[in-house]
# Entry
Amino acid sequence: MATGKRTDPFRGFKFRVSIGGIQRAGFREVSGLDASTDPVDYREGDDKTLTTRKLPGLKKFSNITLKRGITDDKDLWNWRKQVMDGKINNARKNGSIILMDDEGNDVAQWDFVEAWPVKWTGPTFNATANEVAIDTLELVHEGLDRTK
# Structure
């Protein structure tokens, strides 16, 4: 019996991040692409079975965590500083996490909306280590969709 063309899953190491139209490809790690819906118990007043129905409740989205090696590019730090200075109304940005195949073609994309940096964590320094200095930016957002 002949089989169809085999489709291998994409690898998770080739991706880029776009925030507010600014493309960045130098992230070491992106996590937090998560969406859930809490169920709500509901029971009709005249239901004689004495059981509850499960209805969809509010949608919830995890924070997106971005990790990258520190460079002289301060765009993300300045964005976080804007929030720390209380200018949140102008700080909300839409963005995308784009997965690429081995040839660099876009194969999957997750878009998030109304994001702003809720937490920044600086690197750990150790004079006996030789790792890259990594900072972490955590984004809160109001929606996530896979568009590709």
Q: What stands out?
A: The chain has a mean pLDDT of 89. The beta strands are 15-19, 22-24, 27-31, 35-42, 53-61, 64-69, 93-100, 106-121, 134-140, 144-146. The chain has one helix and ten strands.
